[in-house]
């Protein structure tokens, strides 16, 4: 009778939500109802606390049994010891999906593990699907539903699906991603994974129409073999970007403590990601770069990179990183070369990387590379000394006047990835970002920009070999 | 008579400056006089242009010969072909130091190389020391003298000496460093190095009292053997942080083009830096992190790192990077452990890395680690979900109320390096940065923060072995 397990849909698209553990004192139980009201969920939200009464103008029901309407998701924020009982009541109320945010389970050692096992037993027996415990649950930007309060900008609909293990981290990530131009479709923090794990969420996001790219922070796989099979399936349609911690023994110990999972050996994970076409990020910053670039750029046809730059040194740094990431910098075609020679000042070396220095030829060079059939992708390093930028500002010239619109640049070669790298004065950077975003990513490191393009190519060539 | 070469002092502390190539049209010749006036150099600045007349309310002398006063430095911004003649006139006027900013020399190939050789011949024969060509010269924050216009904040006096090869890059670097909490003493962009090279500047900065840390971007050594000897000498007193491009063949080609130098093999450079105690950065961002941390933190006594974190995942990522950078995370001392157990909530694992989660124990944990005699340095990962930060703001609680002042934190263990890592909401980051800066660096990546601490230890142990 309860052996048939429900899917994850209700976690993201509930008809009604019960918050068990609403309270008047500071904390999630106080702020989450407010956030959900603000996000338009007030009429489908039911608060529960044995004390009853009212909170933020809403009735508080003393028990789940008294909740009216048709809630089909419970968000549980009660002390750990109370969770098994609450899960029984959730099931009694006919609800089959619960996000358990409470901490105090397997991450604490033996006693916590026992408690978690009890919760799991209740959930399995009663047919309740659980995300958590020790997490902050889900976000769906499409319907503005979230079981954690995030900044308003983080609810801007995007195409990146996020999977994280721990709650604080997932929360911080969501708070910061929009500042880096990454907008999400759905996000899940899995916590201790007593039931729902990364594989099931991967499959859900694989099928989700609004998700085009999946980014995942993983401390250890819940089930290694299933992870391999799942990644193989998912990456054949959508890129999966992974940051895996626990590379060192000390790092593994650290992860073992805090979400109660046991990390495996790093070399094994490396092999798994390589064989399944998952793109592994080395650092958290790189994970975010990858999400930004994969979500906005097409996959390249080949590995031939053209670099145009207004600083030779930054061009050299990007070239090093690009070659190390498996890209090549071909010679320019004869046509591109003669096209550039016509407008290049005497001091300019017409080659790849194409250092246009302070000449006015920047935009022409970028166009020439975008249109060169021997170039598969373009890295545009655009820096401007503050003094020059201020001159432009004084003359009323904006970055957009200088570069044209992002969509015009994009239209030059819609099939080629284009990434802009810039550094220097904050004012210039902000103007550049707002002129180009969201279509064209601006990355503030030549090495990270080059590596992101290398990852696009690596994923494309994996798909070609195995797709 | 002219065989005795002058030192570099006049480049940084001129009595008076002639700007050859002042002009009314946009460009350096127009903006630099304005910038120097603004920086208090108007009464020691002389403009030269054959057209004569007036610029920004100052007389323009038709030739160097007509310049009054006691100028002892020339800044040359004229077309390349005119530079040999100008250098003769500079010498005729009794000036023995010239910054040649003009481009169009060895970076252009054979013809340019010949022209550069002619300039060099004049300079040698007439005893004129030259920085450049193809550069933007120098900055000295102490006397607010600069041969390039930079943002006002870049002139805030600091302790970091900067050596860069190319002009645009140096300029962009100066425009951006202050935003990352790095403040400079002196900066030099060397350009094509027809005379003054990185070794001579290293020696100058070695002797310079206001410089405590040297950061250098290098495309290729002017003289390999001399670089080894110079680095060995300098690093025994002051850390030298190096970013070297041309790691790959394509990258080397790119650098050969733009400042006319030939890059050497990367493995060789790696060995040179390792043997001389220079600290090599892998990326431009890392170079800036290193400057920030070396300029503000003491050298650690050993490699025992304590990590306190409000996010377990970020703690794990930092732990991996720290171990890979040669640091170790020791067990906490019994005293520290019992001190923490007294205040730790039940769910907290008292260990290293010390994940305090959302407990109120953050500051107490940080203090405990700072005061633990078994810990040589502390990485403090402080993140706060936006919802929590907003709660604090609403209650009028600032980061400073929460953490205390930077100098109080610093006073807990003045001999231990302390780096803070944070991520997430921009408002929180800015408040954190302004509460802790400039004494305590805030780095927005757990991996980069850990690596910077690893570099501090590596430099310290080099000094102990060879000092």
Break the fold down into its secondary structure elements and pairings:
The structure is a homodimer of 467-residue chains.
Chain A: H1 9-12, E1 17-20, H2 28-41, E2 45-48, E3 54-55, E4 58-61, E5 73-76, H3 83-92, E6 97-100, H4 110-126, E7 129-131, E8 137-140, E9 145-146, E10 160-164, H5 167-177, E11 184-189, H6 198-207, E12 213-218, H7 224-235, E13 240-244, H8 249-259, H9 266-276, E14 279-281, H10 284-296, E15 305-309, H11 312-324, H12 334-343, E16 354-355, H13 362-371, E17 377-381, H14 386-394, H15 399-403, H16 406-412, E18 418-421, H17 426-436, E19 442-443, H18 446-466
Parallel strand pairs in A: 1-2, 1-5, 2-4, 5-6, 6-7, 10-11, 10-12, 12-13, 13-14, 15-16, 15-17, 17-18, 18-19
Antiparallel strand pairs in A: 3-4, 8-9, 8-11
Written description of the protein model:
Two copies of one chain form a homodimer. Chain A is an alpha/beta fold. Chain A has helices at residues 9-12, 28-41, 83-92, 110-126, 167-177, 198-207, 224-235, 249-259, 266-276, 284-296, 312-324, 334-343, 362-371, 386-394, 399-403, 406-412, 426-436, 446-466; strands spanning 17-20, 45-48, 54-55, 58-61, 73-76, 97-100, 129-131, 137-140, 145-146, 160-164, 184-189, 213-218, 240-244, 279-281, 305-309, 354-355, 377-381, 418-421, 442-443. In chain A, α12 runs antiparallel to α13 (362-371). The model of chain A has no long low-confidence stretch (mean pLDDT 92).
């Amino acid at each position: 009778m309860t052996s048939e397990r429900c899917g994850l849909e209700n976690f993201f698209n509930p008809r009604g939500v019960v918050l068990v553990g609403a309270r008047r004192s500071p904390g999630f139980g106080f702020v989450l109802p407010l956030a959900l009201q603000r996000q338009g969920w007030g009429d489908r939200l039911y608060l529960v606390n044995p004390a009853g009464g009212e909170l933020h103008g809403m009735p508080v029901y003393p028990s789940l049994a008294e909740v009216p309407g048709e809630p089909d998701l419970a968000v549980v924020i009660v002390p750990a010891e109370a969770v098994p009982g609450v899960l029984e009541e959730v099931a009694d109320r006919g609800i089959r999906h619960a996000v358990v945010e409470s901490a105090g389970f397997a991450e604490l050692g033996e006693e916590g593990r026992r408690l978690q096992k009890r919760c799991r037993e209740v959930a399995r027996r009663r047919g309740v699907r659980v995300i958590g415990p020790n997490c902050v649950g889900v976000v769906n930007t499409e319907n503005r539903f979230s079981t954690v309060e995030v900044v308003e900008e983080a609810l801007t609909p995007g195409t990146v699906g996020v999977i994280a293990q721990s709650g604080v981290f997932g929360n911080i990530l969501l708070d910061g991603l929009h500042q880096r131009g990454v907008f999400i479709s759905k996000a899940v923090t899995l916590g201790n994974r007593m039931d729902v794990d990364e594989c099931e969420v991967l499959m859900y996001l694989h099928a989700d129409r609004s998700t085009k790219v999946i980014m995942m922070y993983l401390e250890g796989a819940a089930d290694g073999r299933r992870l391999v099979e799942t990644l193989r399936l998912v990456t054949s349609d959508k890129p999966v970007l992974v940051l895996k911690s626990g590379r060192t023994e000390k790092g593994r110990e650290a992860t073992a403590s805090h979400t109660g999972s046991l990390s495996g050996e790093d070399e094994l994970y490396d092999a798994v990601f390589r064989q399944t076409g998952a793109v592994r990020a080395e650092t958290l910053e790189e994970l975010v770069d990858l999400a930004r670039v994969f979500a906005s750029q097409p996959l390249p046809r080949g590995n031939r990179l053209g670099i145009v730059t207004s600083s030779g040194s930054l061009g050299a740094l990007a070239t090093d990183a690009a070659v190390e990431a498996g890209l090549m910098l071909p010679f320019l075609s004869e046509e591109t070369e003669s096209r550039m020679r016509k407008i290049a000042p005497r001091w300019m070396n017409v080659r790849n990387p194409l250092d246009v220095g302070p000449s006015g030829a920047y935009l022409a060079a970028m166009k020439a590379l975008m249109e060169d059939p021997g170039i598969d992708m373009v890295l545009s390093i655009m820096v401007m000394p503050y003094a020059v930028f201020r001159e432009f500002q004084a003359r009323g010239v904006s970055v957009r006047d200088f570069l044209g619109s992002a969509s015009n640049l994009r239209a030059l070669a819609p099939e080629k990835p284009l990434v802009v790298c810039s550094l220097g004065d904050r004012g210039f950077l902000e103007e550049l970002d707002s002129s180009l975003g969201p279509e064209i990513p601006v990355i503030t490191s030549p090495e990270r920009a080059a590596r992101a393009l290398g990852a696009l190519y690596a994923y494309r060539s994996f798909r070609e070999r195995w797709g």
